[in-house]
């Protein structure tokens, strides 16, 4: 077994070797610009991009032309939120989202607030779920967009996105979901979810970093978007810039692998490993589970340890790559906004440990991590008792 053990797959995943193989020819052989219309190099690159677009469309249950390639989920989310609010400014300037979104959403809404857009942040219950009656009460005639995360990146809680989407549709409000953590881990179908926009990123499902897509509905309703990036008019004018063909090819291959993996039961295998880890960690003294017992993603487990510091936990777990809360916020010592929204006390939120598994996680690794966490927690508790006596 290789050390350190990687259990931070919610931050990013290992690129599947089959994805790398698919990408390689597009660096050194078929290296054309997908917009070059006058020679074979360009045609080849364009064809490869369209194959990737079809593979992603097949994974998400949409039409290929409803997908815009962007640099990742952060850009996809920025384009959805800022692009929609700008295009629909004459309808209204009110957006609804939740308290447990990824910073890509929350920092985008903060930026919109500075421009005069009003934003409602829906609270969640102790498991991290939005109440439908709170959402319904928040919708107004001037609401242009609702954005709700499908599977949370810190706790793994899954929202009833289909019900949310249906409600938005009945009120003629556009609905965006951040599906970055869910794609490849559960069936994600835009029609079933009743969403008008959806964001995801290749590197969260064993594709390369630096590429993602925005799904935006083309018919009933046709979603209008103001571009964030202007230039050569690529991607139907929604997102200019030379397409990163190798990365797009990689995302397409990763999507194809993810579609087959979900069909063949990979999520259940990962969930079984997560359950084993959970059973072992829940036996430790003073442990609090932040991940709900059901309605959750298969690969994330988040637990807190009473009276222990997250920092010292991470220091003790030197041979295991895990995260306290989320990678995105780990530069700050603030307790996770997600755990605070669930009603956890700041001390408890600060002792959170997020373990996230993947296609490549083995049983042996799960056992070693469970032992390592148990040993570290026991040792820290012993030191604490010594210190207090
Ligand atoms: C990782 C992540 C993002 C950001 O994705 P990038 O590809 O890093 O831009 C957004 N939302 C969620 C839920 C994520 O897990």
In terms of topology, how is this protein built?
Elements lengths: L4 E2 L10 H7 L1 H4 L11 H21 L6 E4 L2 H15 L6 E5 L4 H12 L3 E5 L9 H7 L4 E7 L11 H10 L3 E5 L18 E5 L10 E5 L28 H19 L2 H16 L5 E3 L10 E6 L4 H7 L3 E2 L15 H5 L4 H5 L1 E5 L6 H26 L1
Parallel strand pairs: 1-11, 3-4, 3-5, 5-6, 6-7
Antiparallel strand pairs: 2-8, 7-8, 9-10, 10-12
Helix pairs in contact: 1-8, 3-8, 4-5, 9-13
The structure holds pyridoxal-5'-phosphate.
In short:
With 389 residues, the protein is of the alpha/beta class. The chain has 2 domains: 5-12 and 265-388, Aspartate Aminotransferase, domain 1, CATH 3.90.1150; 17-261, Aspartate Aminotransferase, domain 2 (3-Layer(aba) Sandwich), CATH 3.40.640.10. It contains 13 helices and 12 strands.
Describe what you observe in this structure.
By secondary structure, the chain is of the alpha/beta class. It folds into two domains: 5-12 and 265-388, Aspartate Aminotransferase, domain 1 (Alpha-Beta Complex); 17-261, Aspartate Aminotransferase, domain 2, CATH 3.40.640.10. 40% of the residues lie in helices and 14% in strands. The protein has 13 helices and twelve strands. The protein has helices spanning 17-23, 25-28, 40-60, 73-87, 103-114, 132-138, 161-170, 245-263, 266-281, 310-316, 337-341, 346-350, 363-388; strands at residues 5-6, 67-70, 94-98, 118-122, 143-149, 174-178, 197-201, 212-216, 287-289, 300-305, 320-321, 352-356. α1 (17-23) packs antiparallel against α8, α3 packs parallel to α8 (245-263) and α9 (266-281) runs parallel beside α13. The longest helix is centred in the C-terminal third of the chain and has 26 residues, at 363-388. It is globular. The model has no long low-confidence stretch (mean pLDDT 95). Residues 72-74, 102, 104, 149, 153, 178, 180-181, 201, 203-204, 212 line the site of pyridoxal-5'-phosphate.
